[in-house]
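Researcher: Structure for this, please.
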Amino acid sequence: MSVAEVGIKDLLESGVHFGHQTRRWNPRMARFIHGEHAGLHVIDLLQTVELLKAAQGFVSDLAQRGGTVLFVGTKRQSQDAIRHAAESARMPYVNQRWSPGLLTNFQTSSRRIKTLNDLEQLESQGQLELLPSQERIARRKELAKLQINLGGVKDLRRTPDAVFVIDVNTEKIAVEEARKLRIPVVALTDTNVDPDGVEYVIPGNDDSIRSCSLIAHAVGDAAASGALAWYEAEEARRAREAAEREQRAAEEAARREAEDARRLEAEEQSAAAAQGQEAQAQAEAAAAAEQAAPAAETTPESGEATSAPQESNA
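Model: Predicted structure, token format:
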């Protein structure tokens, strides 16, 4: 899956070049501003194209290594775009309300996520219906609240490897938490925000639904492309490991079969040798018995011969 390139024409059609009013700007965004028109700053889309490519490359490489990108956009213009882009890439997202401490206090957040998953499981199994009415109402209220705040991150098992943000001012807490944990931040930055602390700046309009959707899906497609490559590599690795396990099992079975055959052959040879020795012993015993029998017969006759002359002398 290749990452779709976003050109200047796409950016223009989506209004990405429109900045804020000139009196509501942040001087630290000056290097990304092309000029002004009708009291509005105009963003330099040549830089936007290059910086967006760099951000896409970073996100794609990260996802290709099995990394996770958290998509964040809670303002109305970006909520749907964030959800669609994240879900298409199988990435976590926050599009309703940022829960303070979601990243910096992830241990507590993990417990709340587990509670959400447990309640959803009870709801799907119909177990909540068996609870007393007051407890059932309380559990469902808790479930609804957790779904709003944590529904997009219910599959998050560890802190993300990167955070994509639309509107740094609105998502100030999320950006600060990411910076504390040294998590790279990719952000759509308008002319009224401070880009410092954002590793991958994408200059553009963060107040337009079309602009937010275009940038979010561009980043989401890059994440999906990298994730698909990672999934394919993982499947190939699992298949290779399964084949190796089967080969080792077959070799082990062949080795054991050969050992059993050798052991059986040795036992048969040992039994044959024992039978041969037993037969030889029986033959020797029979021969000895045959030799002893004539000697026993001649001994009494010689006794009678000696007694006869004695009788004659008498």
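Researcher: Any notable elements?
Model: The longest helix spans residues 209-313. Residues 305-314 have pLDDT under 50 and may be disordered.
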